[in-house]
């Protein structure tokens, strides 16, 4: 009766069942997976946000497939601050980056075609690709004193029906940015094979260190058809506002063709509401206050983490350049899921097992640096004590 694209395994995994049972029992849990900024104790500029949502023009309906010009101009201004000049016509507004992905997949790929996506990464692309009747081919990020794209292996991932390469900048959860030399190779790879580059930059405003070799934004790439995705969810820490965008760039004729087709896709849905589009310029401005709070929290928690990891401990963390997460490497004497279940059951601490993000080997846990300080510190101490118990 149901479409094969929805034939997902619906049974909960062991960790989910364990957490559900602990909550049923009323066990107090320290959540080191919390990544919703609205639930992490930050001070939002409430009057300014509420004021942005009150605009008399919201009572008028003047649809524009790409989004209201004033909103797209505000997005162009955001990129201008990064030194990137864009025509607002290159910008398509959507209700989420997930919707933007769907638009782009529909633009580029027929049923059965494929996209290349990084591993490890956030477990979203398989679902989005499946819902759009295309396939995901994973390409490897490898760790060697920092995360890097395995560029030589891209050729081995390639097949005739591959239509795009997807990068996440910085990656979630590795926190690794795309470097300039990597981008040059990716652009050449795409140009030579008539493929597109799709860059997810939702965490790009949260670098932990400066690096001149880091790509500023893929929105400036012009030598291959490129789509750059972002939105208010992370930039202004307002995931509930459901407002994102895709920036198209590339060779002139390809860009014109892509934008013309994207406009028809967007016109078919007209998904973004006028009140949110009108509010976008003001909501985008609120990023200036909230981002400083988030970066302070993330850096503080990372510093605390490093202070607790003694040289001779069986736990260490991998390098992270940006974003909201840290990766712990534990002894692979048990599976990541077994570690996560034990931390929940014995210590009341929630962590993400590495396999959730498609790590290729055991021994990885992912924790959120967005977690409130006291919760983070207590949870971390319990984790380290538990692992030391087995050392």
Distance between the termini: 52 Å
Helices and strands, in order, run as: HEHHEHEHEEHEHEEHEHHHEEHEEEH
What is the percent of helical residues?
25-40%
Overall pLDDT confidence = 96
Side-by-side strand order of the widest sheet: 2-9-8-7-6-3-4-5
The 3D shape can be described as: globular
User: For this entry, what is the oligomeric state of its chains?
Assistant: single chain
- CATH superfamily name of the largest domain? Type I PLP-dependent aspartate aminotransferase-like (Major domain)
Number of structural units classed as domains: 2
Gyration radius, in Å: 21 Å
Structural class call reads alpha/beta
**In the CATH classification, which architecture of the largest domain applies?**
3-Layer(aba) Sandwich
User: Do you know the CATH topology of the largest domain?
Assistant: Aspartate Aminotransferase, domain 2
């Amino acid at each position: 009766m149901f479409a094969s694209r929805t034939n997902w395994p619906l049974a909960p995994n062991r960790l989910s069942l364990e957490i559900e049972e602990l909550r049923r029992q009323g066990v107090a849990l320290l959540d080191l997976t919390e990544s919703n900024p609205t639930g992490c104790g930050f001070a939002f500029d409430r009057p300014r946000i509420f004021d942005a949502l009150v605009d008399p023009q919201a009572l008028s309906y003047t649809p524009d497939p790409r989004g209201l010009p004033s909103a797209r101009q505000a997005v162009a201004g955001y990129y201008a601050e990064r030194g990137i000049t864009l025509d607002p016509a290159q910008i398509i507004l959507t209700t989420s980056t997930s919707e933007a992905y769907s638009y782009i997949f529909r633009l580029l790929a027929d049923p059965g075609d494929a996209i290349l996506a990084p591993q490890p990464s956030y477990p979203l692309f398989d679902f989005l690709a499946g819902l759009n009747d295309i396939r995901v081919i994973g390409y490897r990020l490898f760790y060697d004193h920092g995360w890097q794209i395995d560029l030589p292996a891209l050729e081995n991932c390639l097949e005739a029906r591959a239509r795009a390469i997807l990068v996440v900048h910085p990656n979630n959860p590795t926190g690794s940015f795309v470097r300039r030399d990597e981008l040059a190779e990716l652009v050449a790879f795409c140009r030579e094979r008539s493929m597109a580059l799709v860059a997810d930059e939702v965490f790009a405003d949260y670098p932990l260190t400066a690096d001149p070799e880091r790509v500023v934004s893929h929105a400036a790439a012009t030598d291959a058809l490129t789509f750059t995705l972002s939105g208010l969810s992370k930039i202004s820490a307002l995931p509930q506002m459901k407002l994102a965008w895709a920036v198209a760039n590339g060779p002139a004729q390809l860009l014109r063709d892509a934008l013309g087709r994207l406009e028809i896709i967007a016109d078919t849905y007209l998904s973004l509401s006028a009140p949110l589009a009108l509010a976008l310029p003001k909501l985008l401005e609120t990023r200036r206050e909230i981002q400083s709070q988030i970066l302070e929290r993330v850096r503080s928690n990372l510093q605390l983490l490093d202070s607790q990891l003694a040289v001779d401990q069986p736990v260490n963390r991998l390098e992270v350049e940006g974003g909201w997460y840290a990766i712990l490497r534990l002894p692979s004497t048990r599976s990541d899921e077994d570690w996560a279940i034990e931390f929940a059951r014995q210590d009341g601490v929630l962590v993400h097992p590495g396999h959730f993000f498609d790590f290729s080997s055991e021994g990885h846990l992912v924790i959120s640096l967005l977690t409130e300080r006291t919760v983070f510190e207590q949870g971390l101490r319990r984790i380290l004590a538990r692992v030391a118990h087995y050392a």
